[in-house]
Amino acid sequence: MAGRCAVAFALVGCVWSLAGCGGGKPVAAGPQGTYDQHCARCHAQAGQPGGPGIGNAKGPPLSDVPNRPGRSKEWVAAYIRDPKSVRPDAKMMPAFKDTLTEQQINELAEWLTTKK
Ligand code: HEC
User: 4 or 44: which carries more pLDDT confidence?
Assistant: First the structure.
């Protein structure tokens, strides 16, 4: 099940970032790379409000997460694992607990909550 999800995500990612498949730009390492691969197609790039030309930007920009009340590293990590666990009315964002490792999730949460 988790495997099939991962494949689906990879395929979707390829369609969205045509350049990303088959010899495009190298994927960044660490949380930036995880973000580029799994989050940027919906969320504007952190640090780029509105995210010019990145995916369909269905999600809110995440650049001001550190300034929002209640957005601790733990909250963001829980949100990435399963959005509904911390916000029952979340509808569109998939749970990533089967797609990403705990380490990737924690790195992302730290990265998102410490960026200016
Ligand atoms: C399919 C599109 C989609 C993908 C992929 C996606 N998100 Fe989201 N995200 C959303 C949407 C839409 C919301 C707003 C709430 C909702 O409807 O789920 C959201 C909300 C959030 C929030 C809450 C922001 C806040 O302060 O309220 C965080 C944090 C977040 N996403 C992080 C991530 C991270 C990190 C990833 C990559 C691992 C990711 N998202 C991947 C669509 C997406």
Answer: 44
How far, CA to CA in Å, does 69 sit from each of 36, 58, 66? 25, 22, 8
- Ligand 1 geometric centre to CA of 56 (Å): 13
38, 11, 85, 116: CA torsion to nearest 10: 10
Q: How many whole angstroms separate alpha carbon 69 and alpha carbon 76?
A: 12
CA of 93 to the centre of ligand 1 (A): 5
pLDDT digits (tens, 9 = 90+) for 40-96: 878 865 445 444 444 455 677 787 788 888 999 999 999 999 999 999 988 888 999
